[in-house]
Amino acid sequence: MPVLWPFSGRNAALADSKVMDGREETDARAVMPATAPRRVLALANQKGGVGKTTTAINLGTALAAIGEQVLIVDLDPQGNASTGLGIDRKSRRRSTYDVLIGEAGLREAIHETAVPRLHIVPSTMDLSGLELEIAQERDRAYRLRNALAALDYAPAAGVAYSYVLVDCPPSLNLVTVNAMAAANAILVPLQCEFFALEGLSQLLKTVEQVRQTLNPGLTIHGIVLTMFDARNNLSGQVVADVREFMGSKVYDTVIPRNVRVSEAPSYGKPVLVYDLKCVGSEAYLRLATEVIQRERALMGHPAN
Ligand SMILES: Nc1ncnc2c1ncn2[C@@H]1O[C@H](COP(=O)(O)OP(=O)(O)OP(=O)(O)O)[C@@H](O)[C@H]1O
Ligand SMILES: [Mg+2]
Question: Closest ligand 1 atom, CA of 257?
Fold first, then answer.
């Protein structure tokens, strides 16, 4: 459990992120109500390998560093978020599959991680069979939403999470629809590569369908460009194109391609723990600040 973790509280964390940025950040905490409600953000993109899991792990860690209580829900049978946070397969006695099939309560399946204030519900390969098993059930699209309701009835010792980050599989299947039906907003990681925008309109159409049928309050939180390579002209062109197409929905923060980010999961650690000072860690801390600032805007104008 003990890790070398320099963040001891909200103010310390914000101070650190300012130092690491080399620029002043608005203190997002100062403008949030003291008891902000829980927010559920689904990290979704049906394209594989675009940085969903990396963003779930490291945005989650950065939010926890800023003082938020964060729960990651691993909804991918690959279980990469669970492995990347050091939860080995043998210890996953209860998983998202058990929760969604109704054999375990959500709180029973929560694991602590080595990062203070960051918890996870791990997944196993069983999850790949869920869709067939619940296909005929009336509440099949609301399994996650109903399971998350358990967090409202916290036993005295339970943690009151301020952020739930749902790591989706690379598919627009029923599991992803469960995430969208349970979420307040969708966060879309988009890789800086030639086909970045391919598939985005299909994703946005699915979000719109879920909004019209299952979850009227659903919004797009934002699009985060990942694996940006400054030495590659194409990366810059992709950023320009995506900003032109999606406008203010694109976060200012761009996550650079950084070998430390890709090494960290093999040690079962978020990059912020593996190498706090690398450019990948700095970027995820900036993204966390931006996400909190956007929360304020979204909550003020829910139609966005
Ligand atoms: N900023 C980065 N710099 C370098 N490598 C990265 C970065 N972000 C992600 N990667 C690497 O890219 C690969 C894909 O990332 P990741 O697993 O997060 O994508 P994903 O969208 O969750 O994939 P899947 O669709 O399979 O779930 C991983 O090997 C990861 O380590
Ligand atoms: Mg993934």
Answer: 3
